[in-house]
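Amino acid chain:
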Amino acid sequence: MTAVDIITALLGLLAGIGVFLVAIKIISNNLESVGGNRLKALFAKTSKSNLLGVGIGTAATALVQSSGATTVMAVGFVNAGVMALIPAAAIVLGANLGTTITGQIVAIGFLGDGDGTQMISASVILAALAGVGAFITYFAKKGKVRRIGSLIAGFGLLFIGLNTMSGSMKTFTGPESPIRDFIQGINFPGFEVVLMLIGVLLTAVMQSSSVTSSIAITMYASGLLTINQGVYLILGSNIGAVVVAILATLGASVNAKRLALFHLITNIIRVVIFLAIAMIVAYATNQEHTIGHLFVKMFPDTPAFQLSMFHTLFNAVTVLALTPFIKPFVKLTEKMLPERVKKGEEKKEFAPRLYYIDEHLLKTPPIAMQQTKNEIVNMAGIAMHNFNLSCDIVCTLDFSNVEEFRHNEEQLNFLNREIVRFIVKLSSKELTGHDHLYLSTAFHTITDLERIGDYAENIVEYAEKLQAANESFSETAVKEIRNLQQAIDDLFQKVMKAYVSKDFLALAEADKIEDQIDDLTDQMSENHIKRLAEGTCTPDVGAHYLSLCSNAERVADHFINVAKTIRDFAN
């Protein structure tokens, strides 16, 4: 083996890893786009069953081909306060099992790759998918078909990368290869810890336990590693996967940090459980057998499956073993990371916040899209609540709820800024044409909702002026305002039904209510003129009354604008 052979092999190995990483990214992105609705449906399910949560985490990871993405999603939900810590912990635990799917796919690629067989290697057949997917992407007209083509091409590229890596490694595994002999000869006391640390480091650098385990499977199948060396590299990758979660919690809430700590503790415990079992097996067989050797016997003549099945069974057994103890582990993290409360601080000051969206969700655009809509719907609810508060204040001149009103107004202004910032970032991600249409309308919707808050603020100012002048609306005027308030509340219900469910029938009903509100405000103006003529209403009070009617009518206009956006983005 010459220096040129070694350099050529190393460059080929680097190229194979690069293609493999790009393929994983392509597959992950397109699976998110194609299976986005299923992904949203999975995370929308709520249950007290930890086993169901583990199943959701497993399925979500299999769907996006990334335990890191699933973990980051869970961290984002916890940080935004959308998901409680225990269900999120179950999902994170399940993600460890879902990530083994990639290893099984890699193992399939080595079928028919044995010496002396007449079979075409499965990796060669599957690599041809790159061409099939490319043709579909090139000729397809529909966006969804193009995404499916990209997904197929991604799987093909994955096996091209696998072939390139395997071919490069075979350079080091020839007859009497000193490099192979050196690597396989690493068997000094404590070598297991060193290999696990290497697995941790590789996973932390590449931000993917799937890639590390796939490389280990490829190296073992190519004859460069022993079964035990592959086992400990994979164990290290399980611990290294926690790095992604830890990085995601930088600057996050204490609950998000607790979730990352749960991930770290449980992954370390799972590895410790395996090491204990491995020691028992070694002691019982007088050091003649290891866990790795058991898998060699279970899956003879298929090296790739020996290691991939170890990966799957190790995660399946340890994840299921820890599932009943999720709650105690969560309690432990709460004790280890308690809420920090300053001395003498009896009550937390109000601080506006986001309820559903979080920066971490940008890594999974389909989920981020749904959460953006949820945040906008939540903003609409706050705007309506503040309008009702303003009507209560102006009708009763009771200012006991004015502090709540001010907080809501501050919250609306905050949401106006932050949702727009989030949408700008989300717009740069790979989205469907439908999603881009929705985001383009969302900017206008947010503005409409913020303006409703401004009109409610005007109404509270009218109440303050009435109180300062020691005046108030007449009982008849108050009754009219209450009727108008109820009509706008009815409008709001129909608007939200139309907006959330893309319900055109609800939109038609909202249109009718909005017309009724226009008629109602016209009638209120006429009634006011009569009261002025009769002397039951003063000009100053009447000016505030007319302004209130105008503001309320504008509130109705902005709400109907929100509902009408479904004409632009609903299919």
